[in-house]
Specification:
The chain has 15 helices and 22 strands. It has helices spanning about 45-65, 65-80, 85-95, 100-120, 160-175, 190-200, 215-225, 235-245, 270-280, 300-315, 335-350, 375-380, 395-405, 420-430, 460-470; strands spanning about 10-15, 15-20, 25-30, 35-40, 125-130, 140-145, 150-155, 175-180, 205-210, 225-235, 250-255, 260-265, 290-295, 350-355, 360, 365, 365-370, 385-395, 410-415, 435, 455, 470-479. The N and C termini lie far apart (about 55 Å). Nicotinamide-adenine-dinucleotide binds next to helix 7 and helix 8.
Length: about 475
């Protein structure tokens, strides 16, 4: 793939074979609104066929030696690196990231695939001391890990390449077959990733990518007992629905948040302001880790507000492919309208818009609010748009109390120079990760990643996803 073949009918991959369909779903560039490609609108029968191939794929995948899994994943990583720009253009065309943001996603995907290759050799087990139990003195044995079988990977629009890699890489590393159902809005990056894996030597039955509506293909796949694990990344409402539908199978839920950052008076203020602004407006705020609620200790509130507003004013919103653009559009005009509605509702109840608050089509200006009354959706729910709220707090405990008061808990940031404050916050914050002197928006692909409460169930991060995609088997010899 050297050049993108846009504005054409893209095939999907069922058991690795490319398939077209009379019924197609258009893929739009959210910046221009133009159709850039179309993908098959798969039917229930396509999903069931993908399942039959995946059943054959489980045998093939489980029998692939670790060195072969490693070679395929490393080769795919190398190919993605070599095609960095083409992948970045694809992400920035079908999605709402700018070209500079898209390049970073490609670099992370290269790393994710490489980490997955390493994971293939790390499927460790443990010797079991059977003789600790009276009567078992003559037994020896161990436990080992094996694949679950078929993993269904359901992915969102906002990181259309790397979040697919976060499921496909560990699944291959651990000897599973995998069916990907990418977002209807951004299916192209997932399809290119699959092509790259086939080219790297992945046996075709091991991976299918089925494109189409959640209703037509998502539900039959989620409910099918042949699927042994549903690995889902997306919104809380969808995740809850899928968890109910899935029945008796493993589930992993990587859901959203409205992440808090706490800035104490002793913090390095400029660093905190920069991290908050970058974390609030990365990918136009369409980021599960995005900074949404900024709690600032009263003594430094005015100074922080000034710094945050000044940095926000410097963000260049515009055309995604322009190298000087910092922030692109939202994924659809419906989403942009929803964000505008939430802000207007907060304003009608007394919130002040310090900067931003304007929508033009799919674009929404970087927006900072203050004085938002408690209970407003902009504080309680995940906005998934470029809007952050400043909240003055009297001390750390008050900030922690408010940070914990919502039904989300993915990551939190805390800015302080005081070690006791840092450890107090680490202990009390109800989240999956606490970043000291970073915003909530800090992540590397090798760390355990996931949330508590409405932010999810289980952890990704390559090693941890790989572990979740396996079952333990005990082996015992009676000598
Ligand atoms: P979404 O929940 O609308 O959709 C996610 C995926 O689920 C899509 O592929 C969609 O087609 C599919 N889907 C919807 N209904 C389904 C059903 N009934 N059966 C099967 N599949 C179904 O999410 P989105 O708008 O694409 O993405 C944004 C959300 O994802 C945000 O809430 C964000 O926080 C979250 N997210 C979480 C993480 C994380 O790692 N925690 C990362 C990125 C995004």
């Amino acid at each position: 793939m050297t050049e993108l073949d846009m504005a054409t009918k893209w095939p999907m991959y069922i058991g690795g074979a490319s398939r077209t369909s009379e019924r197609v779903t258009p893929v739009l560039d959210p910046g221009s609104g133009l159709v850039v490609a179309s993908v098959p609108a798969a039917a229930r029968e396509d999903a069931l066929e993908a399942l039959s191939y995946a059943q054959k794929g489980t045998e093939i995948a489980a029998n692939m030696p670790s060195h072969q899994r490693m070679r395929i994943l490393n080769q795919a990583s190398d190919l993605i690196r070599a095609r960095r720009e083409a992948f970045a253009v694809l992400i920035a065309t079908e999605g709402s990231k700018t070209i500079r943001e898209a390049r970073k996603e490609v670099d992370r995907c290269v790393d994710t695939m490489h980490l997955s290759a390493e994971e293939a050799r790390r499927q460790e087990g443990e010797v079991i001391k059977f003789d600790q139990s009276p009567g078992s003195e003559n037994r020896v044995g161990y436990w080992q890990r094996g694949p679950v079988g078929i993993v269904l990977a359901i992915t969102p629009f906002n990181d259309p390449l790397n979040l697919v890699a976060h499921k496909v890489g560990p699944a291959i590393a651990t000897g599973n077959a995998v069916i990907v159902k990418p977002s209807e809005l951004t299916p192209l990056s997932a399809l290119k990733l699959a092509e790259t894996l086939y080219e790297a030597g992945l046996p075709r039955e091991v991976l299918s990518v089925v494109t189409g509506s959640a209703h037509d293909i998502g539900e039959p796949l989620v409910q099918d007992p042949r699927v042994r694990m549903v690995s889902f990344t997306g919104g809380l409402k969808t995740g809850t629905h899928i968890a109910h539908q899935a029945g008796l199978k493993k589930i992993s839920m990587e859901l959203g948040s409205n992440s808090p950052v706490i800035i104490l008076a002793d913090a390095e203020l400029e660093a905190a302001a920069k991290a908050c602004v970058s974390g609030a407006f990365w990918a136009a705020g369409q980021n599960c880790l995005g900074v949404q609620r900024i709690f600032i200790e009263q003594g430094v509130y005015d100074e922080m507000k000034e710094r945050i507003v000044a940095l926000t004013a410097a963000i260049r919103m515009g055309e995604k492919m322009d190298e000087s653009t910092d922030m692109g559009p939202l994924i659809t005009s419906r989403e942009a309208t929803r964000v505008a509605d939430w802000v207007e509702h907060a304003q009608s109840r007394g919130a002040r818009v310090l900067i931003g608050g304007e929508r033009q089509g799919t674009y929404y200006r970087p927006t900072i609010l203050e004085g938002v009354p408690t209970g407003m959706t902009v504080l309680e729910e995940e906005i998934f748009g470029p809007v952050a709220s400043l909240v003055a707090v009297k001390d750390l405990d008050s900030a922690i109390h408010q940070a914990n008061s919502v039904n989300y808990g993915l990551q939190a940031g805390v800015f302080t120079r005081d070690i006791s404050s840092a450890f107090h916050a680490i202990k009390k914050l109800q989240v999956g990760g606490v970043m000291i002197n970073d915003s909530s928006d800090y992540r590397i692909d090798a760390m355990p990643f996931g949330g508590v409460k409405g932010s999810g169930l289980g952890r990704e991060g390559v090693h941890f996803a790989a572990e979740a995609m396996t079952e333990q088997k005990v082996v015992c010899f009676n000598l």
